[in-house]
Amino acid sequence: MLTLAFDTATGTATTALVRDGDVLGERIGRASEVLAEADELLRAAGLASGDLGLLAVGVGPGSFTGVRIGLATARGLALALDLPVAGVSTLDALAAGSPGATPVVDAKRGEIFTVVSGHVRCLAPDVFEVDRGGTYVGDGAVRYRATIEAAGGVVPPDDSDLHVPRARFHAVLAGEGGPAELVEPVYVRAPDAEKALA
Q1: Average pLDDT of 7-21?
Q2: Which domains are seen in the chain, by residue range?
Q3: Could you tell me where the DSSP H helices lie in the chain?
């Protein structure tokens, strides 16, 4: 099956074209470039949108706007191309790219998104329990490197690909997919606009 996968939940968007586990191409860019990147990947592989069998999209957590861009893109493509969609956690994709590492996404506002005891959490970096010698990946790990390393954690160099939720792993984690409207975002906390109205 040919899968188009993308994640726009963090500051670095990724897009990949994967056939039965084999990566045909992958691009790293910005959320606003995902459709152009997808088109370029298909053309480079000598394929067309009609060859796709599945869309895999990152559902967050991450930037509210970034997650919405990804979901809107997936829903639009699914409707236009009559394709199933699979939602994949951005944290799971980060973890898949660095087995054994703890994924940490910058949640802005002085917070991080991570997994604690199997649950997605939003925490202040100074209350995040770091395992001495454990590896931490993601843009949140880069931003709060000093805090993590002071507690004994290990953060790969800032320019490491391990900090990017690579779309190739979304395709691997996707499963069969289903109707696009059933794919839900993972926000973890209420959007700023919703808080302002409360």
Answers
A1: 96
A2: 2-90+164-197 (3.30.420.40), 98-161 (3.30.420.40)
A3: 34-44, 64-81, 90-97, 139-143, 145-150, 167-173, 192-197
